[in-house]
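Possible race condition, two jobs.
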Amino acid sequence: MRDEIVMSWERCARAGLRPDRFEVPYDADVDSRGRLCWAAGPVLDGVGDDLDGTGVGLLLTDQRARVLARRVADHDTARLLDRVQLAPGYGYREEQIGTNAIGTAIAGRGPALVAGQEHFADALTRLACAAVTVADPATGRVIGVVDVTCAADKASPLMLPLVKRAAWEIGQRLLDDSSADERILQEHFLRARRTSKGPVLALSRRTMLVNGAATGIVEPADRELLWDSMLRSLASGQQQPFPVPLANGRQIAIRCEPILDGIRLVGVLARPRTATARTHGAPERRNTASTPAYGWSSLTAAELAVAEQVAQGLTNREAAAHLYLSPHTIDFHLRQVFRKLDVRSRVELTRATLRRQAEPAL
């Protein structure tokens, strides 16, 4: 057995998976109309036409291995994929499904070819699949996977080169879409970096550029939180530095200004600093010494708002629209809510919310 397959099986064993158990998680809240699907659409259509009559299905997933799109030309192949729930909304992360090209490509951060008995789950051993990750050209982060899957007896050594080419074409479309705005963002960042000795960052919906002084203050995981906070600040006309919570629980103060292409917002230029003192015009920080780490009283105002929206049955995107946040920020807050309330699903969160509402007010 190939080394990469052995390593994948070892990861599956550590995750507690069993070959005879096969449960594919489903999530209706996938972004099937986002930038990745826009870039991939024409590529999938073209490759899908080329695969007509070959018995091979073509799939696109997001960075969490959830299927976003599928191209299948014949009913037999569609039934083959449906039997193992390789369909939009279903997730194929390696730690949940076992060794498979989609999940293993993400886990191994490289191309993956898995055929027949190389699959960890017994239910997948009749299949062969090849997958390659798609990276955002601006950040280098994995944002999706292109996969081809067929019956194991129809496997071809050309499967991997095919998905590599498709992934490259999708990357080129992403690059063409972002190049102009990224150049403008970079020009403003370089100009600010030359004239400032303090921390500087330039931020867009997809990119965060930081100088050396800012690397110890913000991290890549903070990008979505920073972006949402800055957009709200610009919309409100905020002139003074304002506090922004980070993913690690710290808080910084930010002063920001828009980066424009004519009248169109391209990004934001910001100068962050650690919020050691109360920022003028900002609400007082919570006293973390007296704030409990768990339970309802440990939730921030943002986390409580997200919990209430989700408990009402809203998806992440619907909650984001109600709260004027991005779905990624909703996802971040929701994970904090789950951790602090010790719940593992939206259903458990709803039950916890109902119990809280039924409690008599003190």
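Job #2 (started ~2 s after job #1):
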Amino acid sequence: MVISTIEEGRESSAWDIPVTMAEEDMESGSESEFDTAPPVHPVPTMQGAFEESMNETMNDDEPEVPDRYSKADSVTRRKMLLEQQEYERTVAGRWKQKPGEKFHPLWKLVAQISFGMHLLQQGLAKSDEEVLKILQTHVDEVDGFLERTTEDFDLAQNDINERIRYLKLPLEHGQVFDQMLADRPFRVAIVEGNEKIEHIIDRTAAAMNDALKDVQKGLDATRELAKYMTRVDKQWEDRTEEHDSVYLAMIGNTEGWTRAFLTLQSKGGHLRKALVQLGTIVAEMQRRAGAASRKNLAS
């Protein structure tokens, strides 16, 4: 089985809740033993995230129900983001760090991936096939997060760019615009429209900032995974042809994920600049509307 990478563009089941490697695939140990002495993770920086993910799985008897954003496309997610009464993240609850959790979901997911590779390398799995199935699920989840976040960033960027293009036009003809602002109904319409734009800016910025926090966590975790994969290469010289294929595919995943996370950070930077530009345009329109209103009162 070859574990696919995000760059192959396949459909992903990104929001399925994975079964933990330790629970399913350790040859020794029971749940009670895990409670007192969890397995040692091969990446020390992931030990805490790994233990938290194990505890969540063992203590959660009911499968997590996908939230209302899980199956929504990017257009629907953006519509929800802008129209909901109070801000609520629309990238699906799985990626939101819940109260009481010490570790980000992406850290826990990557901790499971590295532990799965550890099981294969050490020959500790009951079934290599089952480990590979679980690894594939985890890979799909990371791919899904990256795909959805990229879609959301691209759609937001296009939306903000279009609003900038549209709103810049009256300011490029400032004298005509100021004359039009002398008409009170037009002035009121501009002010009300600007309030809606400010709401869009605020919601877009909030979603962007949350997503960029997730992206940084994912990038940090992926870099730790990449270090582990480099180290395990030297310790796994006798791997089978199938294991070698899995290893090479996972190396491809870490490289592809790193590039994707960095690209998302770049997209976030471009979106932030566009939001500032749009905010500046709105502020200038508000200033001109206010000046026109005061002039009208004085006349």
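The mean pLDDT is 85.
Logs attached separately.
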